[in-house]
């Protein structure tokens, strides 16, 4: 199983650029396969990957994930190809539909027909990265613009990799199937092993629709992680970030992480967390997270327990594992990187 490190959202824990670079370099030294940067309405992960490319030698460089509403697919192709060029073939392009709070509030676009939009997006992205003339007619996107003066164009720079890997972040069954149909990998955020295994049927359904095999397809859970003999401390360290995801990562009506908690059997708890969080009672929201829910959606506790969790991910079909760290200082995060590496070795 290939191990990745998520820088998550820049600025957390008061870490600066030098601290983040130190973490990435340590991950590379420890043998991590990849580093990933997230995107909301703060730092730009593509810029971070280009910056890291010039300061590392081997580690893969992933966007985890770019919001489709923030970049047209041809721009995402240009960005990924450029990072692949400057890094010597280390780029990995993760994309996702995001949610209405960001799509409508930050990008000013309607959040409708997300699966259809993702299909159009991936189709155009694939054409562009393959160096083919971009011509596409779909329910949400048509290129070139009909009736205009434009013509079919091809990407003027080629990625170093023959097939630059494209990952789709997906939580629902239809988008998961779309990953199996059109992507090279699936980023499964906060999925426990059992739910990951259940959703692989959707991947197969999508692959069958495309007449393709899933041989070589990457199944990559992205999981908040903390290794500590003090299990209660580990739970408490997870609660602030998990409360944010269940309570504030989305609107009251549309929060995909909250929906995941419902699917996992924690519907009442997830609703209570969201209600408290949106009312400004973040401390209460954290206290409402039961240990069982924290266990389901994160990976935390003693090394022996976490080794079993890693083994369960392997058994569920995961080919990679990307960990996000929550400890509050650079020193503690450096320690966590080494502890996590020991779990997968």
Automatic annotation (TrEMBL):
CDD domains: Tetrahydromethanopterin_reductase. Keywords: Oxidoreductase. The keyword Oxidoreductase applies. The keyword Oxidoreductase applies. InterPro entries: F420-G6PD/mer (IPR050564), F420_OxRdatse_Rv3520c_pred (IPR019951), Luciferase-like_dom (IPR011251), Luciferase-like_sf (IPR036661). GO terms for molecular function: oxidoreductase activity, acting on paired donors, with incorporation or reduction of molecular oxygen. This is F420-dependent oxidoreductase-like protein.
């Amino acid at each position: 199983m290939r191990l990745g490190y998520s820088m998550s959202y820049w600025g957390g824990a008061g870490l600066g650029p030098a601290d983040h670079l130190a973490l990435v370099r340590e991950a590379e030294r420890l043998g991590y396969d990849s580093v990933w940067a997230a995107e909301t309405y703060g730092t730009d992960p593509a810029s971070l990957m280009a910056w890291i490319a010039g300061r590392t030698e081997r580690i893969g460089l992933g966007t985890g994930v770019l919001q489709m509403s923030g970049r047209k697919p041809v721009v995402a192709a240009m960005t990924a190809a450029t990072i692949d060029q400057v890094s010597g073939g280390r780029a990995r392009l993760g994309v996702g539909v995001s949610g209405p709070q960001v799509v409508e509030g930050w990008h000013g676009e309607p959040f409708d027909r997300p699966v259809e939009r993702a299909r159009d997006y991936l189709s155009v992205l694939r054409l562009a990265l393959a160096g083919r003339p971009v011509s596409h007619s779909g329910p949400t996107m048509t290129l070139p613009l009909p009736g205009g003066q434009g013509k079919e164009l091809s990407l003027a720079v080629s990625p170093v990799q023959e097939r630059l890997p494209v990952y789709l972040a997906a939580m629902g069954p239809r988008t998961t199937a779309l990953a199996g149909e059109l992507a090279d990998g699936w980023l499964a955020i906060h999925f426990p092993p059992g739910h990951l295994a259940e959703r692989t049927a959707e991947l197969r359904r999508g692959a069958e629709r495309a007449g393709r095999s899933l041989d070589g397809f990457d199944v990559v859970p992205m999981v908040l992680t903390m290794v500590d003999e003090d299990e209660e401390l580990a739970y408490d360290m997870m609660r602030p970030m998990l409360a944010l995801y269940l309570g504030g990562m989305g609107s009251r009506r549309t929060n995909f992480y909250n929906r995941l908690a419902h699917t996992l059997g924690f519907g009442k708890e997830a609703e209570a967390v969201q209600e408290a969080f949106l009312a400004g009672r973040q401390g209460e929201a954290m206290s409402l997270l039961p240990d069982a829910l924290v266990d389901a959606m994160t990976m935390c506790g003693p090394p022996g327990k976490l080794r079993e969790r890693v083994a369960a991910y392997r058994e569920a079909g995961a080919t990679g594992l990307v960990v996000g760290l929550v400890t509050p200082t650079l020193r503690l995060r450096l320690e966590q990187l080494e502890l996590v590496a020991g779990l997968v070795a």
